[in-house]
Amino acid sequence: MPSSEGPSVTGTVVWLAGIACRVLCDDGELRTVPLPPRREQGLVAVGDEVEVALSAAGPLLGVVSPRRTFLARPDPQDPRRALVIAANVDVVAIVVSVVEPPLHPRLIDRFLVAIQLGGATPLLVVNKLDRLAELDDAGRAEELDKLAPYRAMGLGVVVCSTRTGEGLADLRAALHAKTCVFVGHSGVGKSSLVNAFDASLGAKTGELSVAWGGRGKHTTTASTLHVLDDGTRVIDTPGVRAVGLWSLEPRELGRYFPEIEAHAGGCRFNDCLHEIEPRCAVKDASARGEIPAARYETYLRILASLREEAAHAAHEGRG
Ligand code: GDP
Ligand code: ZN
Fold this sequence. Notes:
This protein has 3 domains: about 10-65, CATH 2.40.50.140; about 70-235, Rossmann fold (3-Layer(aba) Sandwich), CATH 3.40.50.300; about 250-319, Probable gtpase engc, domain 3 (Ribonucleotide Reductase Protein R1, domain 1). About 30% of the residues lie in helices and about 25% in strands. The protein is built from 10 helices and 13 strands. A hairpin with a 2-residue loop joins strand 6 (about 70-75) and strand 7.
């Protein structure tokens, strides 16, 4: 990669589609930079700090700096490989809603594992608080009780409503001046949240598609980094829908469940997976209610799915 020869400038990748990216350079210029044709998938992602070589023929992609953190999803071609979809992310906001769609703890857990693998800080954002009014007291309690295990494990939780505006200031404060990504099922209110932050974002996305030679279809698969007035950076990427799990060893899974890890030292076997092993301190603790049953069940389910993935990969001759 070109680096030391000729003039170059560093910057942040703020937009990326199939064949090119846009780099907001430290000299204030926004430069469109072609991507190498047969580049490795995930070589560069929105949020990456890169060097741009200013050659006579136009800007060229130089060195990509090592990432502080990343958000990745499994490669559809090979689930054991991770494709980075956003780089240098501080906070990944897992957006869920109450009532419709209802809170789905297992989905939250899978996102948590994926986020922690990349080193970003997860934040749980519970939207549509206004809709709790439709439920009776028991229904409300049932919905909100699902949050207790996450609060207990120290995860930041913001409850809000884009309808009433409740909690939005808290969310803004939690994300202030950070680089963040919103993940979650469709229909939970991710776009509404981002628009509540900055109503001009939709318009800005439109501008980019116009600037890109009017080839609007690129915008549907483009990833974009938006800078809000207060310096908060929001990465919007179509890849978030597929954020999941990949190539995690069953033995490593416990690390992503702090409340399980806290008891693992008491297990009879060092390599205990807390499943069927005898004298397992984790199983005992969950039987005593010291580990929330929902979290332990989630752990077991993810463990089983990792094993299925590994078996599948071995069958395909990759493992
Ligand atoms: P996304 O698919 O996650 O981006 O979700 P959207 O932002 O498109 O929102 C999905 C639907 O939920 C839309 O009909 C929104 O108007 C609605 N919605 C979003 N936030 C709220 C909220 O706080 N309360 C209620 N009642 N509806 C909301
Ligand atoms: Zn154990």
